[in-house]
Design goal:
mainly alpha, Non-ribosomal Peptide Synthetase Peptidyl Carrier Protein, Chain A, about 80 residues
Length: about 80
């Protein structure tokens, strides 16, 4: 199951952005996320999902890519 919906809900909780306006393929920078906000969001993702995102992947900035990465990391934990 994709984590996309939960990521959208996390953005809504933390930043008050309406989930219906979050296109999975649009850069979060287009929603006003700067580099610091993206890093903070990555920390929130790690906390929410109990994962550690590799530093090389912290430049992923669309919800679709983030969801794919979260799903891969979660799957790796169960194997």
């Amino acid at each position: 199951m994709s984590s996309l919906k939960e990521l959208q809900e996390l953005i809504h909780e933390k930043y008050g952005i309406d989930t219906s306006t979050l296109d999975p393929t649009t850069s979060l920078r287009d929603k006003g996320f700067d580099s610091l906000a993206l890093v903070e969001f990555v920390f929130a993702i790690e906390d929410r999902f109990g994962i550690t995102m590799p530093d090389a992947d912290t430049d992923v900035d669309t919800l679709a890519k983030l969801a794919d990465l979260v799903d891969q990391l979660k799957a790796a934990q169960t194997t």
